[in-house]
Amino acid sequence: MLYFFGMFARKLQIDIVMDGETRPCPLEWLDSFAMRNFTRAADFDDTLPTGDGRMEAGLRVDPKRLGEALEEWFNSRGISKGKTVRVEVREV
Q1: Which of 40, 48, 58, 69 has the fewest CB atoms in 10 Å of its CB?
Q2: Residue ranges of the domains in the chain?
Q3: Whole-prediction pTM value?
Q4: Within 13 A of 21's CA, how many CA atoms are on the CB side?
Q5: Which DSSP symbol is given to 23?
């Protein structure tokens, strides 16, 4: 039998930078983004938040575009409580 340990092909590290401090993006923020995009943006249907700063994604997900969309979402929704958020996405 074959077993697959991951759901998607890519494992991504999502970090946020606020006030010069870099830290893993909270799972709650990633969940908020993923649920919003579940029905509206097909580009990100192949994403699954798995923990603080961790997301799995399919091959059609462009990490750069994902980072830009996360940044826009966090800054426009007030999730960061008025602070400007920069998002860094990298494959692990």
Answers
A1: 40
A2: 10-91
A3: 0.83
A4: 6
A5: E
